[in-house]
Amino acid sequence: MCGIGFILSPKNHQKTPLSIDLLERRGPNWSKTVVVKDENWSMEFFGSVLWLQGSKITLQPVQGDNGDVFLWNGDAYNIGELSSEEGISDTKWISDNIFENDSDFLLDLISKVKGPWCFVYYKKSAQKVYFGKDHFGRHSLLWTLDEVSIEKGCTICSCGAERYLTEVPSFGVFELDLLKFEVSLHPWSTLNTEALGKLKICDQIHFSLNQLNMTLPIHIQSINSIEDYVKLNYGIIDDLETLLLKSVKRRVTNLPRLCRTCVAQAVEVNCNHAKIAILFSGGLDSTILAALVHRCLPQDESVDLINVAFELEGKNKRFGFEYNVPDRISGIDAYEEIRTLYHREWNLVNSSRLT
After folding, report:
1. DSSP assignment of 27-72, as one string?
2. Across residues 230-256, what is the average pLDDT?
3. What is the SS3 assignment for 230?
4. How far apart are CA 170 and CA 193, in angstroms?
5. 77-114 core/surface letters (b: 16 or more CB in 10 A; e: else)
6. Residue 28: pLDDT band by 50, 70, 90 thresholds?
7. What is the pLDDT of residue 180?
8. pLDDT-above-70 percentage for the chain
9. Beta strands in 146-201 (DSSP E)
10. How far apart are CA 73 and CA 99, in angstroms?
11. DSSP class of 188
């Protein structure tokens, strides 16, 4: 999670204030402000970075040699499919590619990113600013733009306390034309644009969703037991395991190889501290997840298992077992089992909360 902010103000006018301290909290590893000015506008870009991808931290705002500026708060789950370069962050890969290409390439590229994201991108050669968020709006992006006019400037940011900020709708990618003083939209191909009023509509961005299965396949409708299902679908179960392992590997193998403490020391060290934490109730899902994580990480790297328990109410407190709730009991049992089956340093972190 990174903090990104953009303020567009008419030149020689007082800029709109922005809660920089809130944006800085989103990115504890780095923060910086870049100011760009032209004949008509003053543009302020702020970026703070929480380093979660790549072997090296990608500093923001990202500035291109051509004068472009890029802000990204996202998580491209499929960065390994988009880029053949190992250890690269999604921020660096996306910025490197869009700096070298035209605006149409940006729209095509962003349609291929799988995961939550929001961004702001200043294209100097076109005198345009592009911004938006993923189809489902999973990352917050706020703005002050109430009308389809930018003559008074605007503010765009990932978080803020100002009352005038409202959520950017997840309709697609918006385009600010700094020469024509207008806003237009490149909508998702699934969006009904008839209800968007006077907003100028540009080329669509392709987006597709797999259709959900609403009925059971005929060959399993008569199955009476789990054993029968396994016999008929043994190959499918193997495929499921492969997909789960692939998904977990994506999330844990492109992380910084330093923990938060070692990053703060700003020195090259051999860090074997835990960089992965799993919310661990000891149930089937979290236990399987821990087993899959074990298969993806180096043997000498520890993993934190975070178990949360809320205090018991009533008479049970008399026996001194205020947090001896089902999730705590199952968490401890599964932790002992995990330690026996998978040899690495597992850290059971008990978090006890008051109700």
Report:
1. -BTEEEEEEEE-SSEEEEEEEEE---SSSS---SSEE-TTS-EEEE
2. 82
3. helix
4. 13
5. eebbebbeeeebbbbbbbbbebbeeebeebbeebbebe
6. confident
7. 84
8. 84
9. 154-157, 166-167, 172-177, 182-187, 200-201
10. 17
11. B
